[in-house]
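Reopening this one. Same input as before:
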Amino acid sequence: MKQLSAVVLGVVVFGLAGFSPAADTDDNATKIIGSWEVTKAGGDVPAGSTIEFTKDLKLSVVIKTDGGDVKVSGTYKVEKDELRVKITVENQTVEATVTIKKLADNMMELEDKDKKVDVLKKK
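Same output, byte for byte:
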């Protein structure tokens, strides 16, 4: 379960930190809604993993691992270029804030606090 906790922490932190004036911050909360697939992993979440953001501010994550898929869920909030995520695993709540570097209708770039960038495409 220690590996699961590390993976979940990686999910919460993946792609979340930094400011980009190029991002259309007024529409980020609307554009993020939908299912996204990690196509280029810069952080701890492997390519092929998916995350779904719903209108009711909930999220579902499927992390691809060698041992099979790991599914977690939680809530999120978008404020301008910040994405705040809260996930509970094994009675432990993990919260993180990351930065939306780019967000278009079909692609997104998220940067974590270590400046690692994940690229996602809308499914």
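So the earlier flakiness isn't reproducible anymore. For the record, Residues 2-13 form the longest helix (12 residues).
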